Amino acid sequence: MNAVELAPPAPVPLVEEPENYLSVSHTVASWLLTTDHKRIGILYLYSILFFFVIASFAAATMRLELLNPQGGLVLSETYNKLFTIHGVLMVWFFLIPSIPAVLGNFIIPMMIGARDVAFPKLNLMSWYIFIGGGLFALYSIVSGGVDTGWTFYTPFSSTYSNTHVIAMAAGVFVAGFSTIITGLNFIVTIHKMRAPGMTWFRLPLFIWSLYSTSVIMVLATPVLAITLALLSLERFWGIGIFDPKLGGDPVLFQHLFWFYSHPAVYIMILPGMGVISEIIPCFARKKIFGYHFVAFSSVAIAVLGFLVWGHHMFVSSQSVYAGLIFSLLSFIVSVPSAIKVFNWTATLYKGSISFDTPMLYAFGFIGLFTIGGLTGLFLACLGADVHLHDTYFVVAHFHYIMVGGMVMAFMGGLHYWWPKITGRMYPELMGRLAALITFIGFNFTFFPQFLLGYLGMPRRYHTYPPEFQIFHVLSTAGASILGVGYALPVIYFLYSLRNGKRAGANPWNATGLEWQTPSPPPKDNFARVPVVKREPYDYSPFEKERTQNV
Amino acid sequence: MILPTRFYIKVCAALFALLALTWGLAYVDLGSLNLGIAMGISIAKAVLIMLFFMHVRDSGRLVQLVACAGFFWLLILLGLAMSDYQSRGWVPTRRPDLSQSHPASKGEVPRGL
Amino acid sequence: MSEKSAAVAHQFETIEQQREAATLGMWVFLATEVLFFGGLFMGYTYTRWSYPYTFEQASHHLDATIGGINTAVLLLSSLMMALAVKSAQLGKRKPLVTYLLLTALLGMVFLGFKALEYHEDYVDHIVPGIRGFNFEGGSPRHAELFFWIYFAMTGLHAIHVTAGIIVITVMAVLAWRRSFSSEHFMSVEVTGLYWHFVDIVWVFLFPLLYLAGHR
Amino acid sequence: MNLLPGQASSVAPEVDYLLLFLTGLSLFFMALIFLPLAFFAFKYRRGANADRTPPRVTEWKLEVTWTVIPLFLMMGIFTWGASVYFNIERPPADAIEINVVGKQWMWKVQHQEGVREINEIHVPVGRTVRLVMTSQDVIHSLFIPAFRIKQDVVPGKYTTEWFNATKPGNYHLFCSQFCGTDHARMIGRVIVLGESAYESWLASNSSGGTLAVAGAKLFTELGCSGCHGENSKVRAPPLEGVYGKPVPLDGGAFQIADDKYIRDCILQENHVHVAGYEPVMPTFKGHVSEEELMDLIAYIKSLGGGK
Known about the structure:
heterotetramer, A: mainly alpha, Cytochrome C Oxidase, Chain A, about 65% helix, globular, C: mainly alpha, Four Helix Bundle (Hemerythrin (Met), subunit A), 6 helices
């Protein structure tokens, strides 16, 4: 399905349809050389969908493999390569770019009233760098895969693994720069290109959370780049900085890796929180509760997120006192997330709540992210982590946050802004059905894994003692439902491109500058640069509609 | 705000003086102080370059914030990671009677860090 | 659409906004560079903390005179770059081009000294991983670790210096072809920021690598 | 099918109370969020007539409550968790020492009495057992769910783990840090025997001499006695009574001669410069395996010093 056919040959319109960013030109070159932030967002959408499909196949195969205790569907080497592919592709080539690069690229300039991001050519370069990194990763997968896990722990990854580690490390190294450029672009755009009147406290919360995410992207990703470079040097020339036989320390790699990777999990969840802070006020027709607190909790998560990486290393011969420091800081970093969840719930009080698809995904997000966050406390608590570390409890915890939280929010955001992106409405009933199936399938898949974690089944095992089998069978059954839940939107989104109902400029009657442009918006977003006078989420003009209980 | 050329040359002279100071002090055995002083001088040189050559002094508070953010985050990395290494020997994971006599019980004792 | 001079890119309103965006963008990029080098500084800190004795012995094998001269060369090039940015602000084309070329020249002198030093290390058998690395005083394996970090840090820095020289020469050519004016000179200013940053990195590298402990 | 594996060690109850409290707390917070969520969603659904006059609640009061209360709760859990962690990390003094060497995809266990086992550890019930572990290649992690303990086994250093088995029986032993192809097959059993059964098992299995005896044999075979022996002409530091005592280094500092110090001196060429002696000790890297290292350390320990 190449990009050109995306723009439907509109039937002869009665009134001449205003030229929008899709119909302005249809050549392949107009897509591959575009500097329009909206088109780059769509390019990213198709690229991450491609990687999502590969990683999902890897996950499906693993779930089938785990159906019986002896495994036997695939060899142990293949299983190790499968979970590495699943990890690397999902983290770096789907989750991290998903909301920032797709929805962020599309919506941020429109939300702040700008014509484009600060550095459009740099924005296009970031997509090409992302594709370059993806090609490296694909080369590594095709030519034999990597069996080190997405964490690349040394000395296994640097000395003992004989798989294509350097190629995969190069892929992630390059994709890291794409994230840095996106983050840099957003920071400068949000600082310097806001429309007149758009003060910081009139910014929608989506902008606050993406600003915080960009700060993390910019400050954490370079350390990942240098760590993977050192890993490749170690593997290629044996410099010995991570190899204990040559005087190095494998725990040093863990410090450098987790200094990036914990902030990276906040890169993955913060944009999701931003989308939820947009969806809930719109479908509850009510101003968000505690705007300032939710805004500053995003910034607090971004800053505190850098101080807590040691909770990944409690049992890795890290010193006990360092464990105390990291455990304390990890508990403190959970408070801003709790504040956000309480504020979303309080927003619903005295609202006028409708259960459109984005709102269903938002409810799903709050439910699953709360469970994910609370189980995070188990792992931050030193005494409990000794038993639970590296077991399926951890697998369930981060899937609740990343899949239950981030992917739910990404789906919600995609449904919420789909009319603006394509000018078409998705089929509402199908949307609600898909959201329900995803929610049920997800819980069915990952809740049994908490119990596996309690019972002490370690991660990354392709054969296991028979007493754990019942949980794995439940989990695999759930995974098939989840698969259906994700396949449905792909189908009806493509269907809606051609014959979805035409969406007006503001189908949800939402506040926010992006809804004051026609959908799909013209190339330069705004004819006149808008002037902002009211604070965000001011649903009072829609007051009458709310109080008459129409 | 454009600074006179003479001012730039004065700043450069100060930088050269600090370089000479670092160089000179390297030949004096101050034990563990050597590193501290060398770092202090380097920080002074870096601040001089940033304030005047990179015009941080007369650019907005935002640029000043970003200028310090990089170094501050580097300190987070170095500080918290070294807190792990430094405190490894403190908790007597071995037999308690053994480690009372001497706290650091790992490789070479960090003498001239 | 408010009429704008041709110099302002379509997504900006005023030249002032574009200039601030460019400067802020470069500063954010420099923050990433600080952390990019930061990983190596972390490696340095760990290895020196673990093997302080061998570290100092190995550091005394490096030629501090060339290191010192190189630091002076880079400081001087920073001065040249600062004067270049000043003349760009004043719109004086000829001094802008000369200062830029002087900066690039000093950068090349720095790389020249670096190459000389690397050759000296090669002859001195202290290049790790290559033919007969031998080293007395302290355990050879830990010394090799020091030299790996030394070559990683100075190598990465040299790559940044080379990139800087290329960009400065491009700026000089653009300035020669009159494409900068007194209010549209941000690319020179941004290049200046980058060059000063590269100088700051060397300011820290020199004492840490060459003057570890006392000589 | 209960929630947690059986409690079979002295720390297990402490950890279980902590885990069950955390589960309860999570259920409470889930109720605290999901019930109002469901209630609001139902009561204020669009079209339902309900009093929707904007609430005049002072925002910051509510915000402060649900910031401060969770913070205090967190500090409470943190301290409780930290105290349990301290118990898990710090072994009591008198413990049976068992050496464990992790190798890609098997556990090699050596008892002080000289008995060697693969993937199995026989321990007496009711006695404190301390595992001194190292790895021959990559990072492994010895995880015994029934005892609620886990500790990474890192190459190049000795990590320790202790437990006091309270119930006889067979318990799972897993490797929980990914270590390569057969990470999933690097499992084993901890067999807890009664006191007498353990003694008879030891007697029937200890064919060769104790570790110290094996160490002594190695000490002469490898030529260590050439320098460190009594009548050696080469000046080398005497090893009698050195274990556990501080060793004066050239340059004034000194360092405890513990397992890692002895291991580094054997493996790394002039790792340290002992005061008063030339750093001429050759490296034995590649000539001595991890098990033999442990035998040598057991021998040096047997020469007196901090037993």
